[in-house]
């Protein structure tokens, strides 16, 4: 069923009783050409592009719980492509381009809203660093604008510009950045994939891999029985170490918890995404009115989808430092998601040493914005056995060879990325 | 989280700096594979985990803490250097 204004009118006349489920809740068949483990945004996008771009629709997405129930529904919904390193920027810009055409392509309202991302700077040194990052972006053909305090004041007059400790001197603006509705992204990809013949199998946890005599992966063992597969792709960020361990792999990944927060609903207040440069705090306002914000990961290994209070306090202090007015808003909810933190802070889209097993992992806490390109590039890898041009740097062996992509320059210490 | 420092007693985790997995041991020689393994590869278990914390705002000892990564429950801590518990 195609969604359109005509369809809406037609359904309204039928008192909205004619709507069909957006996608099929499939039962596992004996085998598929490709199985994607993980029904989050990245897995669903991969399946969608496999069918759409590469014509491979004999594909299943197996999900332990329900689709979008993990990090896909726990992020702060920010989309941007303001990276500095050559290994990253073309990939994230490809993702941004896919975001820009996503709703038309999927025929689904993902509420992509390019309301701008402002990264505030508070010192001359930080201005220089942002100028450099902005220049790197522009060299890759991406929009970036260095604003002085006056220009930021016009966009966000409520900020604490004259803060004694962290005065706001300006910002790096990516006007094409913004937010998208995270759940809708998942449902849109699920709907598009399902319509092209992809089986979405929920409540189906992978418990092991089927291997042939040579050790190659030829399927997955699940709680709903064994399923054969020509190739298996993992898109289980947060749980990657555990699932990969079932195939005997040890990875350069630690799992950490990242918390996120939302305030009570408020009138329109924050024009776009604003990030604090002196601490770690980022905020946007959802269409429902809640301020959606977050900060650092808790900093210790964790598989618990909840964090501790020191980080709650730290995030709120960051918010108070740039916009003291939010001290009057009540926090409605906080939650945690489990992040795949890699040793250099960048993701992995690559084959593994195990034949037949492919890896999409290590998204740290930046996976949401990458969803379309991650799916696009992982589908490309699965279909062609070659890396997509924009994802060539995301090799698994880069840690061994020294070609790490350390955007933050923090070294092999995952809790610092 | 509160961490039972063997020297200072039960203290808020805010006083500590986290290092991570206590298992990797720096290889003695210059074997590149061993160094790669030490520097980058992690077991990253879900459940019981031995990890290193530094009591930066306390006794400045390195501690070996046993913690469950699924529940954050801490079941013990000892001095990393001597192995002395409480």
The tally of strands of chain B reads 6
- How many domains of chain A? The number is 2
Number of helices of chain B: 1
**Distance between the ends of chain A:** 43 Å
- From the alpha carbons, calculate the radius of gyration of chain B and give it in angstroms: 14 Å
Q: Write down the oligomeric state.
A: heterodimer
Give me the Rg of chain A, rounded: 21 Å
CA(first)-CA(last) distance of chain B:
18 Å
Give an overview in words.
The complex is a heterodimer of chains A (417) and B (86). Chain A is α/β, with parallel strands linked by helices. Chain A contains ten helices and 18 strands. Chain A has two domains: 25-81 and 83-108 and 182-253 and 344-416, FAD/NAD(P)-binding domain; 117-176 and 255-342, 2-Layer Sandwich (D-Amino Acid Oxidase, Chain A, domain 2), CATH 3.30.9.10. The termini of chain A are far apart. The model of chain A has no long low-confidence stretch (mean pLDDT 97). Chain B has 86 residues and is mainly beta. Chain B has a single domain, classed as Folate-binding superfamily (Folate-binding fold). Chain B has one helix and six strands, in the order E-E-E-H-E-E-E. In chain B, strand 1 (2-5) and strand 2 form a beta hairpin. The model of chain B has no long low-confidence stretch (mean pLDDT 95).
